[in-house]
Amino acid sequence: MGCDSDQGSTGGSCSFIGSAFQDQALKLGVPVGILSARTVACSMKRVCEEPSHPVLLSTEQRKKLSSLLEIAQYLLAHSMFSRLSFCQEVWKAQNSLLLEAVWRLHVQSVVSLQELLESHPDMRAVVAWLFRNLRLLCQQIDTSCPSLDIARAVLSDFVELLVSQGFQENSDLRRVEETGTMSQVAAEVLQSMLSLALDALAAGLQEESSDHRVVSCWLGVFQALPCGGVSADALKRFLSHTLTQVLTHSPVLKASDAIQRQREWSFVRTHPLLTTLYRRLLVMLSPEESVGRLQEVLETREVNWQRVLSCVSTLVVCFPEALQLVQDWVARLMAHAFESYHLDSMVTAFLIVRQAAQEGPSVFPSYADWFKASFGSARGYHSCSKKALVFLFKFLSSLVPWEAPRYMQVHVLYPPLVPGKYRTLLTDYVALAKTRLADLKVSLENMGLYEHLSSSEDVTENQPHSQAAQDVEKALLVFEHTGKIPVPVMEASIFRRSYYLSHFLPALLTPRVLPSAPDSREALIEALKRADKIPQSLYAAYCQACSTAEKPPEGAASGMRAEPTHAEEPLGPLRVALRELRALMADPTQADVISAQMAVVSERLSTALEHGDDDSPQGRGRIQLNVLAPELQQQEQLVVDLLLSAFCQSLMVASSSAPPERQGPWAAAFVRTLCGPTLLPAVLTRLCQLLHHQGPRLSASHVLGLAALVVHLGEPGSALPEVEPGPLAPASSLPVPRFLDSLLTCHTKESSLFCLRFCTATLSYALCRVCPQPCDSWHSCLSPGLVKKFQFLVFRFFSEARVPLPQEDAAGLPWGPLCLSPADWKMATLALWRQGHFQELLTGEFRLTFGDWLQLELEIQPGADALSDTERQDFHQWAIYEHYLPAPSASGGCDGDLQVACTVLINVLMDFYQSSRSWNHLESSGWVPGGHTGSGDLLSRLQEMVLDLELEQGAATQGHFVFSVLRSRLQPLAGGAGVATSLQRQQELLACRRLLLRLPPSILVGGLQARQPIDPLCEDFFHLVNSELRNFSQGGALTHDITIHFFRGLLNACAHSHDPLLTANLTLTGCQTKCPILLTSALAWWSSLEPILQSRWRKRFQCPLPLELQRLQEAQQFASNFLAPGSTSPAPSPAWVSAAALHFAVKKVKTEGARWPKLDCEREELLVPLFFFSLMDLLSSHLTPNDTVDPPKAVDTCAEVLECLQRRRVDWLVLFQLTETDAGLGHLLLRLAPDQHTKLLPLAFYSLLSHFKDDAIIREEAFLRVAVDMYFKLVQLFMDGETRAVSAPASRRLELQGQSSPQPGNPVQLITEARLFLLQLIPQCLKSGSSNMAELLAGREDWDPGVSSALLSRHRAVPDTDLYQEPRLF
Question: Which residues are in the Fanconi anaemia group A protein N-terminal domain (predicted)?
Fold first, then answer.
């Protein structure tokens, strides 16, 4: 047949050979098919016997066999070939039969593999032959194999055959020994090959060994599945059977072994070949089916715990969606355990939780958290009965000999919640656990302050001092950021005194040369000393050691500089792992492979940080940062920079091959790795440095990478702790997305452009990631502030965005161009802006409202703005009048209402002013036009809008709307009595005053149209003055600016009135009764006010001043004449106005102790108000000491007026009994002084003790009542803390009966002197003065029992003279 020839057979030769076979068969008397089959088999045997590869044909053999098989095909086609006979003949030479030759029979359709294998008389021999040849084939498949493609095809076809035959729908794998069919052969061969791989893995594989090649090749078969010739059902049955076989193979380890050794079976420590097998099986079966199979196997079979737990690790690491599945599975196991007291379920649950938890917080919650959630509350599994409690503690006790120390530490430090009557169960377990920990040389007392209980490494007692040094460094870092003693340090000083005193304090108080300026270590030591947290002896020893310490040699300092080299040593493995991860990004859809590599990164990261970064309770508090000066330790910055760079680079690689929505979950998994309690503060600090301080200098790739990072940091939502940005921040704490948004500012051109680029990248990435999903998904991962800043900057920089444009299709998202051409940010920004899907997402809190726009515009510093002054004004004009004013309120506009727009602008301006000295505006100049912020431009816009509104509305009938806005802001602060509320109200009122000064004065007085009377239009301003501004007046006068502004408004109202004189007179007459402090303010500033009034009135009206202004002139002239030598004309009316003028004139006199005999000639109506003004001046000298008020002079003035009142026997006591219900002068005077001054009148009363004349005291019947009332009110003020605001001026001391007079600055001394004065006075008073004392003391008897007793006894001792008078009968 020419079987030894390497030439192919032609059609003619095959025909000739066929004829020859027929002739020979006829001659021998045998069927031609049998003869030809035997001949072909013999020829095939000779081909295979030639020296070659153990399982593969050589090139020469392959050619010969190909010719032979062509002849066989011809014979078969012409019914001259018996397959059965051929198979029988082939198997007779099975020892020399090559696997490739058998495969070629199948490929060239001579005899199928199934037919050939089934024809063997001994199935076990077939199994052995296949197993041996498949093993040899796997052993020879490597990169050096000359026929690698053929070898892989041979292996693939045999696996396809074995899977399809071994796992048919009707095959019963439990009866394969009975059936004797191909199903038996296939199942046994597959099982033998898997067992070979598992045994080799268990024994340990050398990288270059033949066994490693066999196992690697065979397990690589699972990567090629599914095969085309295998049904989906058969494939799934095969994979499920394989997973079961892996989990149950060689079940020699007990549960106690698993408890003791499971730390060695983590994902990273499991052989990569095995984790690759797990990943492929889990991908094909889906996580849900895999968890179900795990559960079924554990319930029905003896298992290999190492394989089970390593499979659990692979499941949670590579499949994020498996987290909830595993948690639900554990919950079912725990529920079943406590319902049936089933120990196996309990063991399984604990092993699964511990295995998953050791993979890190980015994969699974920590064991400490799970244990607390399961047993730390009344809803725990153990809380149903005593039997459940006993079951739990018996189980925990049985774990003690086997489990790792860190688990016992969790059980002891976070014990199960136990009712008091069963407390002994807990104490017995704690004693047992502590004994075991002591045997293992692990101490709870010596645990570090910041140590994580669920880290992957056990804590031993071999490094307490190094642990204390690390705790000191972390405590110093927290103290630098917050200025407060860290909470763990305070807790340790109380609850863990042994570690605190023995290790932490010695590490903190290490002797050294103290710096010239105290550093953070010295400040922390002093803070602890003040809190009595450092023993005096230890502190003294530290100070003594520091005083004798010497400076270290220079070489030591240079040695410190060498630390970065040592610090980078642990980063080598981490750098390699990140490089490998970046290489995998070329195909980011390999979710399981990338997740596996992320587990490696996480493990290397833990090593680099020198501890496990987990989600333990110690790290759950708020993150404290200093945004203005963020600092990182050297090692932390090296690690964080490496991670952030790797993330940015990996994102660039991934984006070059797939858009964000098709990159899989790798980025989210990477970010979860960054969110551990130790690493997250460092990451946020570094982001603060990069985004807030170095943003404009970042490259395009860094901007894109950090933008994606920000999106994924927003995904966990409330799972991340809040951030405290620093002591000067406007909010005490912020969620992470809002904190990151706050780092982006728009103050300058550079910061605005960077903010725009970053927002563009962030929103584009987020939109690509969630485009097919609902809007809620997009909203959940972004801060509204970031979206609003993007809208604001687009409007500001691109005039194209200010006009409606046709929205582009959602298919052209701009992330792709960003990756390819990051310089073209304008194109990318406008492409994003025009996206229809993006515009649809701008709803609710994500839409830029008018108020939001104003707030962001106020941040702009005009001197560093990207827009010129003209461009900025044009932009403001467009934004206000063309965009927001006509826009509906639902879209953030004003519905065309100019008053609404003004209201919003007023509120935003006032809010901005109050926050302008916060952490983001330290250099703000407030409302000064042309300052560092854009408030000046917007104030100009507000002035224009207010004037437009006045022209539109005409004369107001219900008061100006500005006052309504101010009232709405002040009213919520009216009820608070605390210092903080009071200061906030003062700040709010200051903002109100500044706003009024910058608005047209017509707001204060009248409208733009003439109407009579004009005074009702001042009601709102009068109310504001009486209720608010009066309380910030000084000496009975408002500030100069608000006074001048009011009179500007008055002149403006007169200019628009038909009768200017009447308008002015009516307004000022109304001031006398409704707002008298405006008149006293005019007198206080008359020297600067009068020239303005005179000039403007004469120019505008060409007539003398109105009568009421002339009266103010007369009062001022009277005061000047009074102080001048010579006679003085009587004081003009009203007398209180003249008294005010005289008071202000006296204040301007610099001499002390001046005598004014002219007072005796003045009317009583002038003396009483003058004394009131003098009392207010006296109180002001103690409340607000400054150069304008001289305390000794204030006392002398009061004394002079009081002496005159006493000489003339004028009733001056009425000033100390003023109430709001008083009519006439009393009601008026209360409106001339701040409430705080009138409340402190008792203090002024007793400050004048030395000037009360004895005869006057006795003669005044009401004096005792007033003195007692003032005394008790003074005591009440002291008890309420109101006297703390009074300062002690450096003045001469007054004398009273040879004793020093009390000073208001010393409330205790003043009360003491007042009490002594009363006790001396009570016996001397007339009986009429001491009557009805019981009514006066009502409710106050206990305030001073001595004074009360003296008053009541005096009242009872004086007999009623009416009893001795003769009765009048008629």
Answer: 90-443
